[in-house]
# Entry
Amino acid sequence: MKETGNIERGVKTRSRPSITTPRAKLTLSAEQIIADYRLAVRSRAASELGRREVLAGRAPFGIFGDGKEVAQLAMAHVMRPGDWRSGYYRDQTVMLALGTTTLEQYFAQLYADADVARDPFSGGRQMSNHYATRIVDEQGHWRDLLGAVQVGSDFSPVAGHMPRSVGLAWASKLYRESAVLRDVAKGFSRNGNEVCFTTIGNAAAAEGLFWESVNAVGVLQVPLLISVWDDGYGISVPNELQMTKSSVSAALAGMRRDGGPGFEIEVVKGWDYVALCDTYAIVAERVRREHVPAIVHVVEMTQPQGHSTSGSHERYKTKERLTFEVEADPIRRMREWMIREDIADAATLDEFEKHDRSEVEHIREKAYVTFQEPILRRRDEALTLITAAATESGVALDAEANGLREAGDPLNHRAVYVASFRALAALRGREGPARGELARFVRTYREENEARYNSHLLSESDRSPLRLRPVAPEFPAKPEMIDGRLVLLRCFDANLTRDPRIVIIGEDVGRLGDVNLVYEGLQEKHGALRVTDTGIREATILGQGIGAALRGLRPIVDIQYVDYLLFALQLASDDLATLRHRTAGGQMAPVVIRTKGHRLQGIWHTGSPMQMLLGTLRGMHVCVPRDMTQAAGFYNTLLRSDDPALVIEVLSGYRLKERVPSNIGEYTLPLGVPELLREGSDVTIVTYGALCRIALEAAQDLAAADIDVEIVDVRTLLPFDVGHTIVGSVKKTGALLVVDEDLPGGASAYILQQIIELQGGIDHLDVGPRTLTARANRTPVGVDGDYFSKPSREDIFVAAYAIQRERQPDRFPSLDIELDR
# Structure
């Protein structure tokens, strides 16, 4: 236990009794009990000061762990180096007890201090009480994860961390049971002995992600210990409106282990220190030894300050409940018990509390001063430059300078930048050394803050997929022609053989070998732990992958259809895509999501919701290969690098014949590099995926009509054409048609923005750019539904022909047909 201060400072010592818990026979010394009590007091003081700072305007928002202190102390006692915590925003006490955070870091995060040395959890990017350990170093390489308890980066959407917890626990099972992982487990696992401790509030346990996760770990039988902190409410809504039987443990009773697979389930009061220590000692040992999941339902917890700084619980709690909040306060109950058991007297505890609260306030003040110092220095620098520029130019800049001098407490980077920028804008058209220095300051300061808040969206390491040297596919003189699904099968087989860390997770991937037989025979060859079937549970399939990736494995997460990715989209967006950024480069989870889409049959098997994915998955790569050989090249790239990615295969392409490269597991394709599929001089057609083949067919028809189109396959949407090569084609043809299976205004709008705006394509067009997309409705079942809802060969002909007719109406007579999309 770390944050304890001097236990006996200024207090007369005496012999004190120890306590033995009734079931685990755990001996609790008086010194340990007092240390725990003092840490609880310090944590409570930090919560109260945090609320005060937010209400005083010195911190942006606060959410705290008051009322949860004693249970978290008990949990911390049974956590071991190498274990993982995957929790939510009430866990400051366990973090302090483990030494995984300090009060200095707690307050730094409260103030949104962007210095990673002071807020190592998020670099000022997350709200208070959102923790993470830095599991990768400054170069983006793995640290040894066995020297301390590790913490998966917290994030605010309630229950969103539960699917990831499944994977963190499942990784222990793999490390214990998979022989091929023993040689690569160093720094990640000690024979799978690690437990994942996850925490969640009682109200969040009503979320679907909680129930899906509970079911998944019940099936998997993995070492996950779930603690439910139950204070009776979800903000203002009481338990009877949240949960069947008003109790998560009662609702889960049917999952209890009774001679077969299931959960250990314990219920314990949140103020009963001895019972909590006893319960956690028994449950954690069993979870660790037997690899079984458990739920500890901690009831009669309190929330003395209410949910957060955004409101007051006096508005919705009854007088009786508010009285209970005082009487059942766990620190108060622990204090009363310690006095009864003669562990400490009231005067001694009063002295401890006075000293500890004073010290917490001192730490808070120091953290605030430390947070403000670098900004104040930049303010003084800006004022000096503004004053000098005003003197040089004769332009009055008093408003800018005085506004900055009078900027409120706390001072922020925005205020310094805005004052400096406005001063520079007021000097437009003026020249002089002082103005030049001010301009340099504004540019540099903006760059500093861009990096401070916007870095690490993607990997910046030497293992970034954008830095991987491409290896070209090699084809023999007479290449073998095989089904596209066999190209992928050989690719995955080669990668599973090459890297024992690779695992494939999903519905029907194992015994069946995928609904398209892409993995046929791979489970038999590589084992059920590495090619593993799951239930129909997309969110926890992805969560299983995220947790495994955090523990050094290389999961391929299989989602059968891109339409079904919606079940896991919140997780992909809020957890996976933001992970590296929200930890300021401190964590990574290089998950590869494999799915398929674009064209097959029916409303939910023909999806191409690219704009939805582009808007939610920044922080991931999105690959849209036109065939399976291209897809295999992307998998080879991604499985050798350290970013998460989504690969969307062409659903209708598994039975089409393709040339198979002889270096099937070795060749790699670069990301963000389009491919020219057909040279032409009249119109540039930009597309991807299944539409590449259709566009090439349409090109033949257009050529017969004397229209020569150039066709570019973008290949990846994120990143998009990093070398700006497409604008070269537009410059040559002077016309641009984007053909897209997404809905109107979907990915086509994004592609136009990239080419027209970012690449400057607008300067090279002699006719307006066009898009050809799917209809706004979903695609009906059947050949006709597909044909009349999505871009067809004939549609592409009409769209390209219309562009040429607009340029040369005399040469290209009307077709007497127009597209209304």
